[in-house]
Amino acid sequence: MLEGTTIAVTSGKGGVGKSTVSANLALALSRLGKKVALIDLDVYGFSIPKILNISDKPKTMNGKMIPIGYEGMGVMSIGFISKGNEPIVWRGPMIGKVLEHFFNDVIWGKVDYTILDMPPGTGDIALDMHQMLPNSKELIVTTPHPNATHVAERAGKMAQKSNHDIVGVVENMSYFTPPTNQDERYYLFGKGGGEALASSLNTEVVASIPMSIPNEDGEVPAIATETSNLFEHYNRLARTIDRKLSVPTNE
Question: Which CATH class is domain 5-245?
Answer without folding.
Answer: alpha beta
